Amino acid sequence: MNYSTTEIKHQLAARYVIGSMRGSARKRFQRLLMTIPSLRDEVAFWEEHLYALTETLPERQAPERIWKSLEQRLGWLPKDPVKSSWWSWGFRLAAALLLINLLVISPDEPQKTQVFERVAVIQNDDAQTLWLIQQNDQTLSVRAVGNIEVRADNDYQLWMLPQSGSAPISLGLLPQQGDRSLTIAATINLNDVAALAVSREPLGGSPLAVPSGPVVYTTDFVAL
User: Fold this and answer.
1) pTM (2 decimals)?
2) Using one digit for the tens of pLDDT, what is the confidence trace for 126-180?
3) How far is 89 from 144, CA to CA, in rounded Å?
4) Calpha distance 199→157 (Å, rounded)
5) How far apart, in whole angstroms, are the C-alpha atoms of residue 157 and residue 32?
C-alpha cells in the first residue's frame, strides 16, 4: 500500500481513531506511526475533530446487555459459548491483573495493595506473553515473563506513541530476563500514551531519538 498518498493516510488514520482498525492491521499501523510523521499528524487531526464531537452528545445510560458484554470481554463474567474477537484482549488484561497481585504482595510482609494506573502485556505473534508492564506514577515496573528471544548483541527498547501524534519517546530498555524498574522523566506525560512499541536496537539502545532498528512488537496501555 502506498502510504505517501494523502487520501490513504487520511482514511487509515480515521479508522484507527474510531477503533474500526483491529488485530494485525492495528499493530502494523502503530509500527508505521513510529516512522511516518505525516501519519501521526493525520491521527492527531482525527482525534481533535472526532473527540470534540463527543462533547456535544447527550449522556445516555447504556443498556444492560452492553454492560454484560463489556464485563465478559474484560473477563469479569463467564463468556457465552460464542467465539469472541475480544478474547485475546480480555486474556491480556486478566494476566496483567494477576501479575499485579504477584508483584505487589510479598509473602514475607503483611498484605497491602499498591495502586497501579495502567498495565500492558506485550505478546509475540503467537500470543505468547513476553513482558508485563505496570505504571505507578512515573515508574514502570517491567517483568520479562519468558518466550523472549534473548540476544547478546542487541537490546529491546520500549517506546511510547503519544496521542498527540508527535514522535515516539523512549521509555528505556527492557530486561531480557528478570525484572527492571524504569524511572520516567517528569517531563514525559504517561497519560498521553496512545500505544507502546518495542524495537530491537544495538546494545545500549538506539543512537537516535527514534527507533533505529525494527519495531518488533506493539501493544495498548490499558488504564485500570
Assistant:
1) 0.57
2) 778 899 899 999 999 999 987 898 999 999 999 999 888 888 999 999 999 999 9
3) 19
4) 5
5) 17
48: three-class secondary structure by DSSP: helix
CA pair distance 170, 15, nearest whole angstrom: 26
Grid cell, residue 79, equals 463468556
CA dist list (Å): 207 to 63, 183, 223: 51, 20, 31
For residues 216 and 199, what is the distance between their CA atoms, to the nearest angstrom?
Answer: 5
Q: What is the pLDDT of residues 90-132, one digit of tens each?
A: 555 555 554 555 444 444 544 444 445 788 888 888 778 899 8
d(C-alpha 77, C-alpha 68), whole Å: 8
| Residue of 71, 44, 46 lying closest to 163 (CA atoms) | 44
Residue pair 75/90 in contact by the 8 Å Cβ criterion:
yes
